[in-house]
Amino acid sequence: MVILCVYLLLKVVVVKVSDAIKNRRSVNAFDPSYQVTAAEVHELIEAANLSPSAFNAQHWRFVWLQDKDLLEQAKAAAWYQPQVTDASLVLLVCLDVKAWQKEPQRYWVNAPKDVADSMISNSQQIYANNAQLQRDEGMRSASMASMALMLKAQEMGLDSCAMACDEQKMAELVKLPDDHAICMLLAIGKRMDAPYPRPGLVTVDDVLLENSF
Ligand SMILES: Cc1cc2nc3c(=O)[nH]c(=O)nc-3n(C[C@H](O)[C@H](O)[C@H](O)COP(=O)(O)O)c2cc1C
Description:
Elements: H1 2-13, H2 17-23, H3 38-48, E1 60-65, H4 68-77, H5 83-86, E2 89-96, H6 113-127, H7 131-155, E3 159-163, H8 167-174, E4 180-189, H9 204-207
Antiparallel strand pairs: 1-2, 2-4, 3-4
Flavin mononucleotide binds near residues 25, 26, 162 and 184.
């Protein structure tokens, strides 16, 4: 009993965010026999739902690809990358480009009324007539949620791979609504092999600029 308690305690506290960041790698070979439970999928999505989003519009939508035929077609739309059929969980991360217009009151139910009113009014003004900004902000928000998913997966002892796909083909497969867009495909599961060394990292000096370019 004591050993079980110590094990559970360690399991809860052992994964630091910095470890999850360091250990996350893009996996190409997943164990096809490994299965995730519906409860684990729920836990992953619950974590993703806590991600930041522009005007709290929570634009992300996750299409859980489960049907075998659909997965085969999705694999073809992802240039036959094996992760699509081998991973335990395959999510097409989409975004509702018009989330800001759809009952925005629900994004502010717990906020003071003056804050809610001002946020809603500002968002409607800022996004109106700016299709590019609507899409950009949704894409930023869905990308944040994707990273949260990958780090949460890491905490749960799972691996992941962010993937590109032929968006037009994928949109047809999942019957993507006209006012939605595709952010990325995410494969999650157990990796088969140890990761190869990181292929090449830029340095802090390469990417950190002071005040301007
Ligand atoms: C937007 C995006 C698209 C990607 N597309 C693919 C992909 O189609 N297939 C793949 O194996 N990896 C894909 N990757 C993973 C990158 O290749 C990987 O992140 C990069 O090589 C660094 O390796 P690491 O993630 O293991 O650190 C993608 C990553 C991002 C962010």
